[in-house]
Specification:
One of its GO terms (molecular function) is DNA binding. InterPro entries: HTH_CRP (IPR012318), WH-like_DNA-bd_sf (IPR036388), WH_DNA-bd_sf (IPR036390). The chain is an alpha+beta fold. The protein has a single domain, classed as Arc Repressor Mutant, subunit A, CATH 1.10.10. Helix content is 51%, strand content 13%. It has a three-stranded antiparallel beta sheet with strand order 1-3-2. Helix 1 crosses helix 2. The radius of gyration is 13 Å and the shape is globular.
């Protein structure tokens, strides 16, 4: 969702900030980023994550990506 709202593929986010946004412990963010790196979807370094394969990320989300986005779109069309 952050990638949807930024220009380019570089996301300047710390693991700590991602953990707060997602409501999970910071080590879990680090573990998950390592898994996504292993699949070739992202490259992650200190305070920066680069999206390499957006299609792969969306497919790996298994249908969960897009639900919140659609609700946001519905809400914004109402206002």
């Amino acid at each position: 969702m952050v990638h949807d709202r930024t220009n380019g593929n570089d996301l300047s986010l710390t693991h700590e900030f991602m953990s707060v946004m997602l409501g999970v412990r910071r080590p879990r963010v680090t573990e998950t980023l390592h898994v996504l790196e292993g699949k070739g979807y992202i490259r992650s370094s200190r305070g920066k994550t680069t999206v390499l394969n957006r299609v792969g990320l969306i497919e790996d989300a298994g249908g969960y990506y897009g639900v919140a986005e659609q609700e946001y779109e519905n809400l914004m069309n109402i206002i």
